[in-house]
Amino acid sequence: MAAAEALRLLGSSPRGLSSEEAARRLARHGPNVFRSSRPLPAWKILLAQLKSVVTALLVAAAAIAWVSGDRLDAGAIGAVLLLNVLLGFATELRAHRAMEALLGLEVARARVIRDGVTREIDARHLVPGDVIELESGQQVPADARLLEGSELRTVEAPLTGEPASVDKLASAAIADGVPLPDRVTMLYKATTVVHGTGRAVTVATGMRTEVGRIGTLAGAVVDEPSPLERRLDALGRRLVVLALAVGAAVVGIGLLHGLDLAQLTPLGIALAVAAVPEALPAVATITMAVGMRRMVRRNALVRRLPAVETLGSATVVCTDKTGTLTAGEMTAVVVRLLDREVAVGGTGYAPVGDFSVGGRPVRPEDEPALTAALRIAALANRGSLRREGGAWQPQGDPTDAALVALAGKGGLDRTTLVAEWPEVSEVPFSSERLLIATFHRRPDGLVACVKGAPGRVLARCARVYDGATPRALREGERESLIGLNRELASRGLRVLALATAPVSAPDEAALRDLTWVAFVGLTDPPAPGVLDTIRSLRGAGIRTVMLTGDQKLTAESVGRELGVLGPDDSALDGEEIARLDDEELEDALWRVAAFSRVSPETKLRIVEAFRRRGEIVAMLGDGVNDAPALKQADLGAAMGIRGTDLAKEASDIVIIDDRFPTIAAAVEEGRIIFDNIRRFVFYLFSCNLAEIFVLFGAIAAGLPAPLLPLQILWLNLLTDTFPALALAVEPAEPNVMRQPPRDPAAALLSGAMLRAVAGYGALIAGATIAAYAWGLAAGPDRARTMAFLTLALAQIFHLGNARGARPVLAPAVALRNRWAVAAVVFSVGLQLAALTVEPLARVLDVVPLSPREWAVAVALALIPAAVGQALKAASAR
Predict the structure, then answer these.
(1) Integer Cα distance of 343 and 577 in angstroms
(2) Tens of pLDDT, residues 352-408
(3) Which residues sit opposite 114 in a β-bridge?
(4) What are phi and psi of 146, to 5 degrees?
(5) Per residue in 168-202, is it b (16+ CB within 10 Å) or e — as a string?
(6) What b/e readout covers 470-494, taking b as 16+ CB neighbours within 10 angstroms?
(7) Is 347:375 a contact under the CB 8 Å cutoff?
(8) CA–CA separation, 791 vs 786, rounded Å?
(9) Contact predicate 579/555, CB 8 Å
């Protein structure tokens, strides 16, 4: 609506509100602050750690051990439970504080007109209807409708993610429903004025502002369990059924064989405990903690522990464009002269780079037209560069700073040029004229330097710079120049025209019969390593999808340049997405890999649509506008340097170095972590299943129990702990990033791995029962001791089968994980102590064995390991 109508609707006037009316509105609307949602109490976060089924199994295992009289084992399981709960609690405590990050966006002071007088007040006291004044360098204190402005430009990166400044125009006619980046009559809280001055009427404060609304949207997203948490819970539920079924079956079979219930009950309890790998939650937590440390070394800081595995499951990476896929720094890459195109090297704002034509280097001093273009770029300019800590920082408009850097690459310094050609006047940039002109005094008179929109500048040109001298425009040449502009724009470049002319007076009326010198094409270039990373992710079966607040044409051009968009892919803009229902949007995701002009709600819809399709979504972002999608995604990754506090608090990991390639490194680590979790689950289950087979088989055959309950509990603690922990640091397989993503719906252990678990469990059990049967001739005590020793050693040696795909017989392969070798040596030492240290042997009820019995037990224990290594060697050929 018109500015006057906005004032009327808000019950205000150009003189602002009275102090009394402002006080009444403050009481009605509340202060202009972001209110953090009520934080989740720490005790609730702690309680949430106990909801896992596997954790519940630990509690049950500890209780069973306590009831069966084994206080030591109950205490050990309790310690494992406590460690698991505390680790999870510590890593998730801050994950529930997302809304608090909004406080970092508060604006302290505001200039407001009250009672017809301009005064400075605490920005918390602003109310709808207040008339505020703004100037360059200020943050906008509330959402406001522009009433009047002079060359007003703002940077809306916190809301749109785009660093380019936006021209604001009070008198523009804006259609209903246009995307936020196109609302040139509006100013938004937490954005920054980078040029000009303005006066505006406040329309929304506090949580009703765009930034506050986004924070509310992020706070409303419910945290969901990670894929690993869902898989472990599903596994835990199956373990409950297995443990109960095994215990009941053994007791029932024993009763059928005439055994006493008092004898069978402890055995049934021990078997139920044997079915539960007590170390599973702790080893899973420690594996993720080890992965978290590795990720930090690769510049990915993990805020929520299960996130370290989730990345390894990712099938789609949704990412912001500006500053993530691109460098986030406007860069002049092309100077288009009349007869040639000059490529400009270098990226960002550093005034370092070379010039070339068709790959052949050129020097600006040898090219009069190029030198003239660089001079105009530097003089018709209000930007500058400042070196801070070894990096060049833009001052003012990013586009102006990029042109200063362009001139610097050609050896032209703006300060020196202005000293040689003093500026006497200017025609400032405005949204109506779309150009800026500066007037400079030379020894031979005044000269105008003009920079602006190609169409507007060409309309004022009558001459063209051809080689070293200007000449009149020929017939059809103006249309040819317009065609050149279109061709540059179709490549996703932002195009500016440069022109000059001697003038008689320093005013706008003199800006006619200009001489066109050049077009400059600017872009935000790809960030280092992005192209290779996208290729690497594609090789790993992971799609990269770009979400940007930029125009659709730019999104398509950048997407194709980076390889995000394939030959058959297309782009959608925000308005097109708004016309699609949820089902149509899901269908569109198959062919769309770039989304432009997207709002925070649209980003959230896109992430939700991918997830409804069964994809595991990783979302990368840095702005306030990314926070809801970051929180909704299976894994949110925020940029650590330029990321807003809200984005970081809504995320699961923080990319410390702000580099897109870090996400590929994190994906690789996530895959390694999942592989290692699957390795130790395979190891634990095959060992525990072997124990079940041993007891179940013996009882079913009518033999005395080959193992005592305390011996089973000792084996669980011995083999489930140190060897399983060693698998947490198993190095990556060479092809880890050439494998397709895992099926999100797949179980932790595939059908093939479950068959392998059963097979190795049967092999280990078979070796143990053979040792037991061999020892029965010497008496049940010696037979039980042989079964105890064989089962322990077979489980320890089985660690080699649970490691990588290659046999571990070669020293180079075995020593890739020195912790595994150490775990084998240490566990074997503990088992030897159990049989030879008198107090421990008495507690475990074992007897001394002869050298021959030792040899038989060791030989039988090696059989499962030898079979496993032979199978690996055969599959590797």
Answers:
(1) 37
(2) 999 999 999 999 999 999 999 999 999 999 889 988 877 888 887 888 999 999 999
(3) 17, 117
(4) -65, 130
(5) bebeeeeeeeebbbebbbbbbbbbbbbbbebbbbb
(6) beebeeebbeebeebbeebbebbbb
(7) no
(8) 8
(9) no
Q: How far apart are CA 546 and CA 595, in angstroms?
A: 6
Helices (H), 33-131: 42-48, 53-67, 71-92
Rg (CA), the chain: 36
Distance CA 479, CA 625 (A): 41
Burial letters for 712-743: b for 16+ Cβ neighbours within 10 Å, e otherwise? bbbbbbbbbbbbbbbbbbbebeeebbeeebbe
Query: Which residues sit opposite 414 in a β-bridge?
Result: none
Fill in the amino acid letter for 513.
Answer: D
Residue 318 Cα distances to 186, 541, 639, angstroms: 29, 14, 14
Beta bridge partners of 139: 192
Spatial separation of the C-alpha atoms in residues 854 and 789, rounded to whole Å = 8
User: Strands 617-621 and 316-320: what pairing?
Assistant: parallel
Q: Which strand (E) or helix (H) includes residue 253?
A: helix 227-256
Q: Are strands 514-523 and 461-466 parallel, antiparallel or unpaired?
A: parallel
Nearest-angstrom CA–CA distance, 842 and 851: 20
Is 320 catalytic? The answer is yes
Question: What's the pLDDT band for 431 if we cut at 50, 70, 90?
Answer: low
> How far is the C-alpha of 686 from the C-alpha of 693, rounded, in Å?
10
Write the single-letter amino acid at 132. Answer: I
Half-sphere exposure of 418 (CA within 13 A, CB side): 15
Q: Are 213 and 207 in contact (CB under 8 A)?
A: yes
Q: Per residue in 673-727, pLDDT tens?
A: 888 888 888 898 888 889 888 887 877 777 777 888 778 878 877 777 788 888 8
Q: Which residue has the higher pLDDT, 57 or 856?
A: 856
* Confidence check: pLDDT of 95 > 50: no
Which are the contacts of 792, defined by CB distance < 8 A and separation ≥ 6? 715, 718, 719, 827, 831, 834, 861
| Structural tokens at position 326 | 């691109």
CA distances from 18 to 5, 6, 115, 126, 141 (A): 19, 18, 5, 12, 19
Give the residue among 227, 231, 225, 230 at the shortest CA–CA distance from 312. 227
What is the amino acid identity at position 537?
L
Supply the DSSP symbol for 321: I
Q: How far apart are CA 802 and CA 283, in angstroms?
A: 15
Spatial neighbors of 808 by CB under 8 A, at least 6 apart, are 800, 814, 820, 869
CA distance 719 to 738: 33
Amino acid, single-letter form, for residue 496:
L
**829: phi then psi, degrees, rounded to nearest 5:** -60, -45
Q: Which of 73, 130, 167, 320 is catalytic?
A: 320
Bridge partners of residue 635, in order along the sequence: 618
Q: How many CB atoms lie within 10 A of CB 361?
A: 10
Task: Give whole-number Cα distances, 775 to 762, 845, 853, in Å.
Answer: 20, 16, 8
The CA-atom distances, in angstroms, between 241 and each of 52, 245, 696 are 15, 6, 16
Determine contact, residues 310/616, Cβ cutoff 8 Å.
yes
Place of tokens 């299943």: 689
Q: Following CA atoms 225, 229, 230, 233 in sequence, which dihedral angle do they give, to the nearest 10 degrees?
A: -130
Q: Which two tokens stand for residue 41?
A: 């109490």
- Residue 497 CA: distances (Å) to CA of 461, 479, 554, 558, 625: 11, 14, 19, 22, 33
